[in-house]
Write a structure and sequence with these properties.
The complex is a heterodimer.
Chain A (H helix, E strand, L loop, with lengths): L1 E10 L2 E11 L4 E5 L6 H9 L6 E6 L2 E2 L5 H8 L2 E4 L11 H12 L4 H14 L15 H13 L5 E5 L7 H18 L2 E6 L2 H7 L2 E6 L2 E6 L10 H7 L3 H11 L1
Parallel strand pairs in A: 3-8, 3-9, 6-7, 7-8
Antiparallel strand pairs in A: 1-2, 1-4, 4-5, 9-10
Helix pairs in contact in A: 3-4, 3-5, 4-5, 5-6, 6-7
Chain B lengths: L1 H17 L6 H16 L3 H22 L8 H41 L2 H8 L3 H39 L4 H9 L5 H26 L5 H31 L1
Helix pairs in contact in B: 1-6, 2-6, 3-4, 3-6, 4-6, 4-7, 4-8, 4-9, 6-7, 6-8, 8-9
Classes of the chains: A alpha/beta, B mainly alpha.
Chain lengths: 252, 247
């Protein structure tokens, strides 16, 4: 479980996040949704410590993460896997080397054991016979899946995903969403996903937090989201004309 | 002035991070070997070509400017040797490497920054500054002196070939000249300068890349800044080190 209390963050005097308090549950896919520029990525990066927060607390279980010294933060970070918007695979390394990187760096496994684990992770995300390819030779969906394989290589307790299906076609996007949800349940991870894709919300939104202009506006799940009274959320959910028509039809 | 001090402070804080204890030395060792190839071995060709022609031009220019019979011919070889050892092999090579290696380092690290690869390292708990910069520093500090020795050797040979082919000096006179009044300390002086310049090129370029914000345009700008700042600092340190080491 990850708990955020009263978190605020600003850049050059401009407030980006304002007094956000939320709990992310273990074994669930927790989604942070909101428009572009609403502060989703800043919130995610503040939780993992890539941004220093000015005010508030970030708890990983019963550890106050954002107040820990650097050396102790590193211990928690070894339990974190993160999938970045652009995948963030290391360009100079092959698929196999990318996935083995955290294993090489933080474990004392033998080369054979590392390769076995790499192959297991790659198989788990359905990447076959691509061990020796470089990231530049992969499609967008494959890059995301390799990034997921790298993120789960160390069996993390926490998985963070920043727009995991941005730039992907709807079918691949749903496959990635389902894969993340499966892994979350399989390894009982606390997974936090940033997205503005409504398909993801409907498919895997076991817990959903809606952020607007840096503040939390709504919290619920994918069953409740279509019947909310929160106007900014409804504007976001029913943004396209088809959704508007369906909504007005169901009301009448 | 405040901006300059802020940047200087950031630079030294980055160096502190770079020289902190590596997470796993064996991984750093592999990375250092990789950098030996990318930053060191891959620079041998350009250094050899430029040194060859530099040595050739120094020989020909010295010859055409000392045609008076009062000057013995072997002075052409001596002039080429000392010019190559004292200045060209270390300083000019460093300026060339600032262009080649410096821009390479800044753009590589800068691209890693804007594509969130550095964030990915930090999330894993890796000290990204140390992992990315320390192997490059070790590789250039150890390999650039070798490049300097190559530059001296090839430049001196270039002078000999150009001088004898152009008929401005006999082979015997040139060889006598490059052996005449040889001061071994000059080599030490040149290598000391090279080590300082290698540190400047790598650390300044890495600093420019590491703190890039934005996109590809900013990476390009950081790459240009890396070359310009490295070159200026190299020239400044050239004066300081010359005064300290030769006075």
């Amino acid at each position: 479980m990850i708990r955020v209390n009263d978190l605020s963050k600003s850049f050059n005097g401009k407030t980006v996040l304002e007094n956000i308090s939320v709990t992310f549950d273990t074994g669930k896919t927790n989604l942070i949704i909101g428009q572009s520029g609403s502060g989703k990525t800043v919130l995610l990066k503040s939780i993992v410590g890539l941004h220093e927060v000015e005010h508030g607390e970030v708890w990983f279980e019963d550890v106050l993460f954002n107040k820990l010294p650097f050396a102790e933060k590193k211990l928690i970070r070894s339990e974190i896997g993160m999938l970045f918007q652009g995948s963030a695979l290391f360009d100079s390394l092959t698929v196999e080397q990318n996935v083995s990187f955290p294993l090489d760096m933080f474990t004392n496994k033998t080369h054979e054991e590392i390769i076995e684990r790499v192959n297991f992770c790659l198989n788990r995300v359905n990447i076959i016979n691509a061990n020796k390819l470089f990231p530049s030779e992969l499609s967008g969906g494959m890059k995301k899946r390799v990034a997921i394989a790298r993120a789960i290589a160390l069996n993390p307790k926490y998985l963070f995903c920043d727009e995991p299906n941005s730039g992907l076609d709807p079918i691949t996007a749903i496959l990635i969403d389902e894969l993340i949800q499966e892994l979350t349940h399989e390894y009982s991870m606390t997974t936090i996903i940033n997205t503005h894709d409504m398909n993801s919300v409907i498919e895997i939104g076991e817990k959903v937090i809606f952020i607007s202009q840096g503040a939390k506006c709504w919290e619920g799940d994918n069953n409740q989201i279509l019947n909310s009274d929160c106007e900014p959320l409804n504007d976001f959910v029913f943004a396209n004309s088809l959704a508007k028509k369906l909504r007005s039809g169901s009301k009448s | 002035m405040i901006k300059f001090l802020t940047q200087a402070g950031k630079y030294f804080l980055l160096l502190k991070k770079v020289f902190s204890k590596p997470e796993k030395p064996s991984v750093y060792y592999k990375q250092t070997m990789r950098e030996f190839v990318f930053l060191g071995l891959n620079s041998v060709g350009i250094i050899a070509i430029i040194s060859f022609f530099m040595g050739a031009v120094i020989t020909l220019q010295t010859a055409y400017n000392t045609e008076n019979p009062i000057y013995p011919k072997y002075l052409i070889g001596l002039g080429t040797r000392d010019s190559m050892i004292l200045e060209f092999s270390s300083t000019i090579s460093a300026l060339i490497l600032a262009g080649k290696v410096g821009s390479n380092i800044a753009s590589e690290i800068g691209t890693m920054r804007v594509t969130e690869q550095i964030d990915a390292l930090e999330i894993m708990g890796v000290n990204s500054a140390s992992y990315l910069i320390l192997p490059k520093l070790i590789a250039t500090l150890l390999f650039n002196p070798i490049l300097t020795l190559i530059a001296i050797t090839v430049g001196t040979c270039g002078g000999w070939i150009a001088g004898t082919f152009a008929g401005v000096i006999s082979s015997e006179s040139y060889i006598y000249g490059i052996q005449y009044e040889f001061i071994p300390y000059y080599i030490v002086y040149s290598l000391i300068k090279t080590v300082f310049f290698a540190f400047i090129i790598t650390s300044v370029s890495a600093f420019q890349g590491y703190f890039v914000e934005g996109g590809s345009l900013e990476v390009g700008r950081a790459s240009t800044k890396a070359v310009v700042y490295s070159s200026i600092i190299i020239l400044l340190f050239n004066v300081i080190l010359t005064q300290l080491l030769l006075s």
